[in-house]
Hints:
Blueprint: H1 4-15, H2 24-35, H3 40-50, H4 54-63, E1 75-80, H5 83-87, H6 90-101, E2 107-108, E3 114-119, E4 131-133, E5 136-138, H7 143-151
Parallel strand pairs: 1-3
Antiparallel strand pairs: 1-4, 2-3, 4-5
Helix pairs in contact: 1-2, 2-3, 3-4
Amino acid sequence: MLSEAVIKELEEIRQRYPNARAALLPAIYIAQREFGWLSPEAYEAVSDILGVPKTIARGVATFYAMYKHKPMGRNIVHLCTNVSCMILGAERLVDILKERYGLEPNSTTPDGRFSLVIMECIGACGTAPAMLVNTDFHDNLTQENIIQILESYK
């Protein structure tokens, strides 16, 4: 299931931590990176490689929002809609994404280009509204610049 390169990387990760459980977060992230999402088989393979119980790996994999449990688009848009972002227009930005790309929260465009994930808080209240596209941070979003930003992601 996991490539030889990923298995080697997981074994190297394991050596950097005091115990296998401590290595779970980055190890599961590596498995997710391999497939773009985290299937039960992927985190079970991680548990086998690290030698931790499958229930522990599953608990970690399902607890954190950074792990995706279904196939996602090539570009994952994490849009904050918490209080500061909402007050400064994030709800309108969600509407724009629906109109322009047909993106509903927790959905993927038909062409697989974008997936939209609504975040509880992205920690950018002073420059709200804000979003992450993959690992790229964007703030001071407007109805105009959100489209310009997303058009740069193919």
